Amino acid sequence: MKTIRSMVLVSSDPLSMERGAQQVFDNLQSEIKSFGLEDEISLSMVGDVGRHDALPLVIVYPEATIYGPVKPQDTRLLVEEHLYKGRTASELTASIRELSGKIAWVNARKGTIPAQQRIVLQRAGIIDPTNIEDYIVHDGYQALGKVLTEMTPADVINELKNSGLRGRGGAGFPTGLKWGFVAGTGNKKKYVVCNADESEPGTFKDRLILEGDPHSILEAMTIAAYAVGADEGYVYVRGEYALAQERLKIAIEQAKEMGMLGDNIFGTNFSFNIHVHSGAGAYICGEETALLESIEGRRGEPRPRPPYPTTEGLWGKPTLVNNVETLANVPAIIFHGADWFRSFGTPSSPGTKVYTILGNVNVTGLIEVPMGITLREVITIYAKGMKNGATFKMAQTGGSSGSIIPASLQDTPMDYDSFSRSGVSLGSGALLICDDNNCVVDLAKVLQNFFRVESCSKCNPCRIGNERAYQILNNISEGTGTMQDLEDLTMISTNLSELSNCGLGQTAGTPIRDVLDHFRAEVEAHIKLKVCPTGVCPMSGKRK
Amino acid sequence: MPTINSLDDLKKIREEALKKRDVKNTAGQKQVIVGMGTCGIAAGARETMKAILETIENDNLSGIVVTQTGCIGVCEMEPIVQVQIGEGEKITYGKVDKATAQRIIEEHVVNGNVLKDKVIPM
């Protein structure tokens, strides 16, 4: 297996090409070869880099050093200094400036790559999850102690607001703001709920945190409870996560014994209790209001919003609902401070993100990297390249309700704002990497089938829309689609996102929209030529 | 277990635990850590764990501490076993089946010879 340690990109917008980018590329290629580095360095051309001075640019990852303008005769020096000897060829670097939108983000990278920066997973796989002493040795419960003895609830919320932490469940809502909403309500009884339902296909980051470091979630929930004024909490764990539930229960018992949970925590008059509630396998219960219904013992169907859970949640009381990964960030933020947290990631999305990598790549698994690294880096460096040297075609983020990301966006920084500017979403952190043997129609069909089955059928756009979208995609994959079908799909996708009651329906139209936006030609080939370019679809001529 | 009533209590417990560990480490304690997340268990970590415990019992070994931990993120290489001897470097092995587990105990833990073919770089 080749291990790529560095990645070189050459800008190839029209201006760069005019100034000899092709020659620079060719020279780099032969220089890399002459130093015998071709197995450890990947070289590629990228489109618009979002800046128009100092072209052509050469960007070297993982350091994200930007060189420019690079002339063909500079390439030897660049390769020898940077790639062979491993130091920056400072006479060639371009002035540091943030590149707008489309590519790499220089200021955000403070020497944290490629070594993974672990905040959320700092103890997972290191400590014994069933031993509270091990957690304490690794700085556990110190943040809670600091909060209870030295900080007011308002201090805690301010610290969190300053840290810029955003919800890691998919929507990216500022966490400090949410805490502030709950704290601001006058009600005496409040709840803190940890959403560990994690049913997005392909996502398993929350499971890993709960299994590897359960105490961090208990500590974070207790901090949250103190900040918002709650005295009772629930962890809603996906039913399939038996091991996570078991370890959580052990952790709760140990924390109670040591006085980290229960009455008079840390000898103060603050008391807090946590219950573990097991889900029963419904995707919809990951939606926060459906989750609350489920805890209350009713069928998991979303509530109309507003009122939001922050004002009227569990049993009508103000409730804070946070994702596992969001909470896992909290003790570290309190322990090290908001400024420390802001030193990772991008200005608008500080911190790190846990991604689960799966699909046609050499190494699958889980990584935690600063916000703002690119998909190309994830594939080349962390996933060690595409399997069998295939070509990257698309990636699907965040389970089913994420976006389908075409190869043209693989140099977009992965953070909430850059992604939403490009019209895609980060989702919950799964990265399903597909090579060019996969068919987009087939992928969309599988996703739509998932939504069709998992829709709770409470509202019509979701119940009928997903069913109809699946039928249409099925027809296209059987070779019996029409061009009118594409119009219908567009309409269904718009209706789903605008008219549905909850997040499930609102995001269910995203895959269709992405497919039509980025892969329309491939879909039209199915309809007009009756051919599936990748040979995946059955094309049997049947129509429903 | 003692109850914690202040931040100082917590720090004291932490320091005592750290001291205990240091003493054990300088005394050359042998530690074997098995990755027991769902991914590890699915890949056969329970079998690996069993093999490790059986080897220790059959060979009548002592002074070895076997613990479990969660997933470290390299699910591809599960079951993962880590070995640390005293204050030495932590060695990580990937794809440890029953036979390899036995070899790790008998060759690395007992005799100090690292199984180079099974080590994964961390």
Descriptive key words:
heterodimer, A: 544 residues, alpha/beta, Glutaredoxin, Rossmann fold, Ubiquitin-like (UB roll), five-stranded mixed sheet, 21 helices, 13% strand, globular, B: 122 residues, alpha+beta, 4 helices
Secondary-structure blueprint of this entry?
The complex is a heterodimer of chains A (544) and B (122).
Chain A: E1 6-11, H1 14-18, H2 21-34, E2 41-46, E3 58-61, E4 65-67, H3 75-85, H4 132-137, H5 142-150, H6 153-163, H7 175-184, E5 191-196, H8 205-212, H9 214-228, E6 232-237, H10 242-257, E7 273-278, H11 288-295, E8 319-323, H12 324-336, H13 338-342, E9 352-359, E10 365-370, H14 375-382, E11 392-397, E12 404-406, H15 416-421, E13 430-435, H16 440-454, H17 460-477, H18 483-499, H19 503-508, H20 510-518, H21 520-529
Parallel strand pairs in A: 1-2, 5-6, 5-8, 6-7, 9-13
Antiparallel strand pairs in A: 1-3, 3-4, 9-10, 11-12, 11-13
Chain B: H1 7-26, E1 30-35, H2 38-42, H3 45-58, E2 64-69, E3 81-85, E4 91-93, H4 98-110
Parallel strand pairs in B: 1-2
Antiparallel strand pairs in B: 1-3, 3-4
Helix pairs in contact in B: 3-4
What does this structure look like?
The complex is a heterodimer of chains A (544) and B (122). Chain A has four domains: 6-92, Glutaredoxin (3-Layer(aba) Sandwich); 132-339, NADH-ubiquinone oxidoreductase 51kDa subunit (Rossmann fold); 352-435, Ubiquitin-like (UB roll), CATH 3.10.20; 440-529, NADH-ubiquinone oxidoreductase 51kDa subunit, iron-sulphur binding domain (de novo design (two linked rop proteins)). Chain A has 544 residues and is α/β, with parallel strands linked by helices. The model of chain A is unreliable at 98-115 (pLDDT under 50). Chain A is globular and about 70 Å long. Chain A contains 21 helices and 13 strands. With 122 residues, chain B is α+β, with helices and mostly antiparallel strands. Chain B has one domain (28-118): Glutaredoxin, CATH 3.40.30. In chain B, a hairpin with a 5-residue loop joins strand 3 and strand 4. In chain B, helix 3 crosses helix 4. The longest helix of chain B has 20 residues, at 7-26. In chain B, 36% of the residues are buried. The A-B interface holds A 116, 121, 124-133, 136-137, 139, 141-142, 145-146, 149, 204, 207-208, 211-213, 241, 243-244, 254, 257-260, 266-267, 363-368 and B 1-7, 10-11, 13-14, 17-18, 21, 35, 37-39, 41, 67-76.
